[in-house]
Sequence to fold (536 residues):
Amino acid sequence: MTAQISFRDLTLGYERHPAVHHLSGEVAEGALLAICGPNGAGKSTLLKGICGALRPQGGSVDLHGVSPRDIAYLPQGAEIDRSFPISVYDLVSMGLWRRAGLFGGIGRRERVRIEEAIAAVGLDGFESRPIGSLSGGQMQRTLFARLLLQDARVILLDEPFTALDAKTTADLVDLVGRWHGERRTVLAVLHDFDLVRAAFPDTLLLARQPVAWGPTAEALKAENLLKARHMGEAWQADAATCPVAA
Amino acid sequence: MTPYDALIAPFVEFEFMRRAVVGVFALALGAGPLGTFLMLRRMSLTGDAMAHAILPGAAIGFLLAGLNLYAMSLGGMVAGLLVAVGAGVVARATELKEDASLAAFYLISLALGVLIVSLRGSNVDLLHVLFGTVLGIDDATLLLIAGITTATLFTLAVIWRPLVMDCVDPTFLASVSRSGGVSHIAFLALVVLNLVGGFHALGTLLAVGLMMLPAATARFFVRDLSALVALSTLIAFLSGLVGLLVSYHLGTPSGPSIILVAGAAYGCAVVFGPAGGVLSRLLPGRHLEA
Fold:
């Protein structure tokens, strides 16, 4: 087993308050890992730390040769300006940025790939629709098509199935399974334990500090969940400096 | 009056009218796309703030070198770029949002400009900068405007993709590339350049009008980005052309005439525009089958 992501005593946070506190461990290459935990447990923060959007306050993240810019990252409730006049096709084609850049042509091969990605998420016929006219589920499908085009070795998903119906969720979970089959490393923040148990072999249960990390059935045992619930949401305005040496 | 007398004769007979129309055409080429992006990025008032930021720089240039095209342009550009880049950097590097940091910077610039002017004890007629003289455009000014327009179109071609991506999904662009910040600051610099080019013809405040009014008008007719850019450029040019003719025939000042023509087009679009205008909302037609 080769590691794809290694956390070394990682502390991430905002204004010196840690949201992820002293996390150590490794995510194997090709792993399909669910990240669970109560609100405020540092799940989104951890993803931001991995893709480089947030600098560690202590410790480090090692991506083993993958550049943070080659990670495909789908943030929670992505801040997309839905009123901007752009089509589904153009939004999806943004996934080619790392290859095309400023001037790179979008030729016949790229167009085929864009169309395949749109078809893979079940949006055939929506290519020229403005993104402002999409439903929530269609928008999420569009973003998954863009992720497909990014063709990344490491994929981070932050609550990707929130507010989606069963059919859309099932379709997108299938895509995640496909990535897993292609030995890509996928980390997803999720709240639906049934879904996690059904589709994710491994789980990291986080409550600022790791509560459990391992095979899903093991990590999501009732005693661990109870422990996580008690540890969450401990932001204190007058917190003292952490005594653990950096 | 024959149509020839009304529409063609002024340009055939007077060189200053021909220069004016060429100048307005060049300005429209830059103002169309820039105005469209300012509107789509919800930065419509940013142009106005920039215009204020340029004013003191131009006034300082005037103080040092008199009514000199290059001194005033350079002063305006320096002041405008300092404000644009400073505000952009503060917005990206700190928690302060773009509008607040821009307001802070342009107010400082404006106050500083007024202070310097008053210290020099000279009574600069800022009105000259506020309202330009489109009918007094000489060769040097025309070249300056054309140069700015050329640079603008080239730069826009280079930063087009990151600029669009930064508008639609800034988080995504930031996750795959660092070009978001660079393209944003380049875009603000282009706005400053074009306002400087525009102030000789229309004055700083009205130069913003040639960017924003046509863009806002076009939004009521088309929804596609390329179409928006093309249509707002066309509207900007037509406003300039019609405004010049109105000013010629009625003897009104040219700058305000041009902007008022653009304003009239905007007024019509608000009422009759098929894409979200007042009438299309009041009389939406029967709903469709699917």
